[in-house]
Design goal:
The complex is a heterodimer of chains A (about 325) and B (about 525). Chain A is an alpha+beta fold. Chain A has three domains: about 35 residues; about 100 residues; about 150 residues, Sandwich (Jelly Rolls). Helices cover about 30% and strands about 35% of the residues of chain A. Chain A has five helices and 21 strands. In chain A, strands 6, 9, 10, 11, 12, 15, 18 and 21 form an eight-stranded antiparallel sheet that branches. Chain A has a six-stranded antiparallel sheet with strand order 8-7-13-20-16-17, with no helix packed on it. Chain B has about 525 residues and is mainly alpha-helical. Chain B has two domains: about 375 residues, no CATH class; about 100 residues, Rossmann fold, CATH 3.40.50. Chain B has a five-stranded mixed sheet. In chain B, helix 22 links the parallel strand 1 and strand 2. Chain B is globular. In chain B, about 60% of the residues are buried. The chains are: A alpha+beta (about 325), B mainly alpha (about 525). At the A-B interface, helix 2, helix 4 and strand 11 of A face helix 16, helix 18, helix 19, helix 20 and helix 23 of B.
């Protein structure tokens, strides 16, 4: 037994020695090969040229592949048709669709007309009046895609189901935790309202459009404020509004607050000098209950407390004055 | 004809083309002219091009008012080709754009001539590298001063070289005067043309300071002084001769001065200008995001290669005669980039502020590519260079074909194409030129006599399209969306207020037609109820 273990030990020792010797030989051979290769290395200019040739070949091949892959990363007409069918089936009143990325506006053409599109790119701070649920239509594989819209919605809404994948499109439904459900959106009530400038009545020149001589115009429209579309009352004056411009809306039930925004309309408004400060006062049946001094640069919010008259049906009027000519976009929501 | 026969004939033709600078230059010029002329009818009319067309044709000017004062050379050339080609039945827009095709042909020939001393392969490859980029090709398809300035820059480089290399003093003086005249033409093409004069003066000053010999080394005691005096005298004289209004009109003088344009980076980069990294050196950012990636790599390598060669020549590790031609090419490539970064170039989009640097970059790039092939595999240098050229040119040409005729909407693979660029907030096009792509569907579907509101297109552009027959004759123009039946809007970063007002007037935000590239909308048509069939 001991003889056997001695023989086994010797055999193991011999094997180890051979393995070490083999390894040593291998290392030696590799070192010799490397030394040989180093001694015969091409000049650095050739190495640089070879590296450049390889880089150009790689860049060309990568470009071809990137171009070929792009089409599969973007939605096809079939994808849009499927998304439209899905929304047609599942959307209901109070739903809206948002786009991510915001440039994917083929949705305006492709999605059903019954689902309005949210025009803003960032949704965290948007009131989204009247919207209970938002369908986020996104293209996650689009180059430069960011999850901002989804993050914004996740802050204020619960995702009902896992998102549906429709080709390159992904559709997720978000149920807003506290939707803004206004009693009235005042610009929409202008058609049945009245406008005066000082003591003079302004002429109605169309549904929701008034002209106060050559001095001012008031209309229900959509304008660009800070790069986003805003439905609002557009108030344009060729000269400073020395006299108060009073926009009176038909009687409506009053809630706890009246929330609104004002901003200079049009992309070049600040440069054109039409972004002057404005004063907006709110009257209920002719009695001023609050006012706000607003900078028209940007989309400035204001809030008037109307809780004293909450529940009553009263005529609301907005009174606008400004020390400069105006191209103002003004909205106001009567909130419960 | 058999395949072998065709190959043989092709080789014979290639040998003939490459047999000398003249056949090579003529071949490239002819090819460029034919391609640019053939593709010239495609692009729409941007606001910048409309200004050039209105200056070239009083019938297009707004309400009888003259166009704003601007350098007159590009409008004059457009007017000349339009008038010359009109008897042949060429439509006015194509006629006006034929001037650019002609300038493009001259540019190709000048590139070949300038690059020929670097080798026939370099000379033949350089124009291909220039034209393969979609925005460079687009500049050759529309009327405007940018390509003209690029061609004049090449002409200046050729004439400047002759002003030093000619053996006879009289010929040197003649070449110097020609250089001055070309500088005058550059000033009459674009207000920042003086940057080219600055590059030449820098080259003369540096060559003198570094005591660089001319390639054909000989005593040229007064060559530098003569050339600089010719630049300083002949240039302004020709400018005043081409633009007499400079003597009487303060507005023309202000336009000729080309005051630094603040916000050039914001104009070129759109919403992405808020990124300090991109705006810091916006010409590099724009080139880096618009030139197809493989081509961009070769252009950058060309610059580095030239700088290394210059360093070697200056340090005595290469013949010192090599330094001056490389210095000239480097300065003519880098000075326009620096000028654009400094806000001296006009506020135009894409690579247009520094397009006149790109032919020089292309020449340097072609040289680097050919040199690398020769160094990497000396025995197979020609096939390797051809393969590399194919790998560089193929994706670039594919991009050009993909974006045509809206070449100014092209962004490269690094930007993620048009979609990635839109995600970054980069401009989608320039000046409403995509409106033309909607005219076919408008012609087909618009109600007879419909009034069209064009919030983003220049009135001169609309008149041009109407006169060219691309806009249906019975369609009228409306000044406001409330008076319109249709609205044709383009999305080019210039604000969307007009589009939103059309939503309100037509009571819909749903377009009836759109034009897209890589799913990114470039333009929409909105219609009032009943106006769309």
């Amino acid at each position: 037994m001991s003889e056997l273990s001695r023989l086994a030990g010797r055999a193991a020792g011999m094997l180890r020695e051979r393995a070490v010797a083999g390894l040593r030989d291998s290392v030696h051979s590799v070192r010799a090969a490397l030394a040989w290769a180093w001694a015969r290395r091409p000049p650095w200019r050739r190495v640089t040229a070879l590296a450049f040739v390889a880089a150009v070949a790689w860049a060309g091949a990568w470009s071809v592949l990137a171009q070929a892959r792009l089409a599969s990363r973007l939605p096809s007409p079939l994808d849009w048709a499927a998304a439209s069918a899905l929304l047609e089936r599942d959307a209901r009143p109070g739903d809206a669709a948002a786009l991510s990325p915001a440039w994917a506006e083929r949705a305006r053409e492709a999605l059903p007309a019954s689902v309005p599109l949210v025009a803003q790119a960032r949704l965290a701070a948007e009131a989204l009046p009247g919207v209970r649920r938002v369908w986020l239509v996104s293209i996650p594989s689009a180059p430069g895609f960011r999850w901002e819209a989804e993050a914004d919605l996740s802050e204020r809404a619960a995702r009902a189901d896992p998102p549906s994948r429709v080709g390159a499109l992904e559709i997720a439904r978000f149920d807003l935790a506290s939707p803004t459900l206004p009693i009235a959106f005042l610009p929409d009530r202008l058609a049945r309202g009245a406008v005066t400038l000082g003591a003079a009545d302004c002429e109605a020149v169309g549904p929701g459009r008034f002209r106060c001589g050559a001095a001012a115009r008031v209309e229900r429209t959509v304008r660009e404020i800070g790069g986003a579309a805003r439905p609002c009352l557009s108030i344009t004056s060729a000269a400073p509004l020395d006299l108060p411009l009073v926009v009176t809306f038909p009687p409506s039930r009053i809630g706890r607050t009246l929330d609104g925004h004002a901003g200079a309309a049009g992309a070049g408004a600040v440069a054109a000098g039409t972004a002057a400060p404005v004063r907006v006062a709110v009257l209920l049946d002719g009695e001023e209950i609050g006012s706000a001094e607003l900078s028209a640069a940007g989309w400035s919010p204001f809030r008037i407390d109307t809780s004293r008259s909450a529940g009553q049906v009263r005529a609301i009027a907005l009174v606008v004055t400004s020390p400069a000519r105006l191209a103002l976009c003004l909205d106001a929501l009567v909130l419960p | 004809m058999t395949l072998a026969g065709a190959i043989e004939r092709g080789r014979a033709l290639a040998d003939r083309v490459a047999s000398g600078v003249r056949p090579a230059a003529i071949s490239w010029a002819a090819l460029t002219f034919v391609v640019l002329l053939a593709l010239g009818g495609g692009p729409g009319v941007s606001r910048d091009e409309a200004a050039v067309l209105a200056a070239s044709d009083p019938a297009l000017a707004i309400g009888g008012e003259g166009p704003a004062p601007a350098p007159p050379l590009a409008p004059a050339l457009s007017a000349a080709t339009r008038v010359l080609l009109a008897p042949a039945g060429v439509p006015s827009l194509r006629g006006a754009r034929a001037a650019t095709a002609l300038v493009g042909a001259i540019l190709s020939a000048a590139m070949v001539a300038l690059a020929w001393e670097l080798g026939p392969a370099t000379a033949l490859l350089a124009p291909a590298l220039f034209w393969a980029a979609p925005r460079h090709l687009h500049a050759g398809l529309v009327a405007g001063p940018d390509l003209l300035l690029a061609a004049l820059a090449l002409g200046l480089a050729l004439a400047w070289r002759r002003a030093f290399s000619e053996a006879e003093p009289r010929r040197r003086v003649r070449a110097a005067l020609f250089t001055g005249a070309l500088l005058g033409a550059a000033l009459a093409a674009r207000a920042d043309g003086w940057v080219l004069g600055l590059a030449l003066a820098l080259e003369a000053g540096l060559s003198r300071a570094l005591r660089l010999p001319t390639p054909a080394d000989a005593a040229r005691p007064r060559a530098t002084r003569t050339a600089l005096v010719a630049l300083a005298v002949a240039g302004p004289l020709l400018l005043v001769a081409a633009w007499p209004a400079l003597l009487s009109s303060p507005a023309a003088r202000a336009a000729a001065l080309g005051l630094p344009s603040r916000g050039a980076a914001a104009f070129a980069l759109g919403g992405a200008a808020s990124s300090p990294l991109l705006s810091a050196a916006f010409p590099l950012a724009i080139a880096g995001l618009t030139v197809p990636f493989a081509l961009l790599l070769v252009l950058a390598a060309g610059l580095v290669h030239a700088a290394v060669r210059l360093g070697r020549a200056l340090s005595g590790r290469a013949p010192r005669e090599e330094a001056r031609p490389v210095l000239l090419l480097l300065l003519l490539a880098l000075t326009p980039l620096a000028a654009a970064a400094a806000g001296i170039a006009p506020r135009v989009g894409g690579v247009r502020p520094f397009l006149h640097a790109m032919p020089f970059l292309a020449i340097l790039a072609a040289r680097a590519l050919v040199h690398a092939a020769r160094m990497a595999w000396p025995s197979r240098a020609a096939p390797l260079a051809a393969s590399l050229a194919l790998l560089v040119l193929w994706p670039a040409l594919r991009t050009s074909a993909h974006f045509h005729p809206t070449g100014r909407a092209a962004w490269n693979e690094l930007a993620g194409g048009a979609a990635g660029a839109a995600s970054m907030g980069l401009p989608r096009q320039e000046g409403g030129e995509a409106a033309a792509r909607l005219l076919e569907v408008v012609a087909e579907r618009a109600r007879g006599g419909a009034r069209v509101y064009w919030p983003t297109s220049s009135p001169a552009a609309v008149r041009t399209l109407a006169r060219d027959g691309r806009l249906r004759a019975d369609l009228a123009t409306a000044a406001a969306p409330e008076e319109a039946d249709l609205a044709i809007v383009t999305l080019d970063g210039a604000g969307r207020d007009g589009e939103y007002r059309a939503w309100s007037a037509f009571r819909t935000a749903r377009p009836v037609a759109g034009v897209y590239v890589d799913e990114v909308p470039l333009g929409f048509v909105y219609a009032a109820p009943g106006a769309w069939r």
